[in-house]
C-alpha cells in the first residue's frame, strides 16, 4: 500500500509503539478495575446496547437514554460490531487505538497525489509520530472511550479532500465528521463562511447548509424525539464570550496544569513554525477557521485534559502542516520534533511500563491476585445472573458493561426517577483501592453497615477485598 518502504516501516513501528506503551497498559488497567464509570463504563454500555436498530438505548450507568446526552450517531453504527467481542470496554479501547492509527492514511494519500511538496519524506515521518502520539491522542487513550479521539480520522479525511480540491469528497467527509459528535459542525461551518467570503459559493454554501441542518436536528428536533430532559452542552458559551470575556482569561489564573497541556499540543510544531517563518512559507490559512470553534469550545469551559485535546490537535495539524514545494525540513529539525513528542509522553511511557511489568505494585488499582480474583468472581456472577438491578462501585462498572441494569454507587438519579430497589450490591472494601468519586471518604463502610441491616440479605462474598450481597437494597448513597 505504501510505496516508500521507509515510510511504511516507520508507520508500522509507530503503530507498534503506540500499542505497546499506551494501549496495552490501558488494557491491563481495565483488567485491574482501574477505570471509572465516567466515562469508560458509560461508553462501554453504549457500545454494548446500541446498534443500527437501537440507536437510543436506556443507559443505567447514567440513568438516561443515550441521545439525551451526546448526539454521536457514528457510535451507534459501529456499536453493531460489539456482538463479536466479549468485552464492550475492550472494543472501545481497540477503537481508541485504531482511529489515530488510521488518521495518518489521509496525509499519506495527499502527499501521494500531490508530489510537488518539499521535504516529503520528513514531513510524512513527522505526521506519523504527531498524529499517533501527540499529547491530545495519548491523553485520550488513557481516558477511554471517546468519539473525540475517534474523530481524528474523519478530521484528517476532510482535510485531505479539501486540499485535493475534491468537491464531493469534501462534502461527504464533512457529513461523516459531524456524525461523530454534535459539535464538529461548528468547525466545518467556519470553513464554509470563509469560502463564501472568497466567493467560492459552490463549496461554501453546501458546507454551511449541512452544518445549519445538523444544528437544527441536534438542538431543534432531538429534544422532541428523546423526551423533555436533554443534558445541557455549552448553552451559555456565547453569553460568557460576549458578556464576560475578561473572566474567561482570569479563570486560568493559577491553572498551570491546563495552560501546560494547551502548550503541549503545539510544542512538536516549534521546529516547523520556526522554519516556516524563516523560509517565508505560509501556513494553510484557507482552512484555518476550522480551529476557531474547537478552540473556543475547549477554552471557555477549560477542557484541555483527557480526550478533549485530541480533535483540537488534529485541526491544528491541518493548519500547520507544510504544504509548499519550497519548504525545507532538515532531518535534524525532524529529529528534534520527534524527541519533543516522546519527551512530552515520558510520564505515560514510564507508567505504562510499570503497569505491564509490575501491575501488582501500582497505587490505586494493583493487580493483586486475591483482589482481582474476588472482583472477577463477583462480576462473572452478575453477568451469569442478569435478573435484577445491581448497584456497583464506579470502577467496577466498565467490566460489567455487557450486563443490563447496572447502576453506580453514589450517582444520584435525575429528578422524578425512581430506580431502586436493587437486587445486588457490590463494592470494594479497602479504602485505598478503587475510585469512590463523587462520594466523600467513609461512604463505602457506612453503606456496607446499612446494607447488612437489610431484611432477607444473602451475603454472597464478604472478605478483605469486596462486599457482594443479594437482597432488596434501597440505599443509593
Keyword list:
alpha/beta; 2 domains; two-stranded antiparallel ribbon; 7 strands; globular; single chain; 5-stranded mixed beta sheet; 477 residues
Total domains, how many? 2
Query: On the 0-100 scale, what is the average pLDDT?
Result: 88
Structural class: alpha/beta
What percentage of the residues does DSSP assign to strands (E)?
Answer: 5-15%
DSSP strand count: 7
| Helix and strand run | HHEEHHHHHHHHHHHHHHHHHHHEEEHEE
Distance between the ends: 56 Å
Strand order of the largest sheet: 4-3-5-7-6
Radius of gyration using CA atoms only: 24 Å
Spans of at least 5 consecutive residues with low confidence = none
Name the shape in a single word: globular
Q: Main sheet, how many strands, which sense, barrel? A: 5 strands, mixed
Helical percent range? 55-70%
Query: With helices defined by DSSP (H or I, 4 residues minimum), what is the helix count?
Result: 22
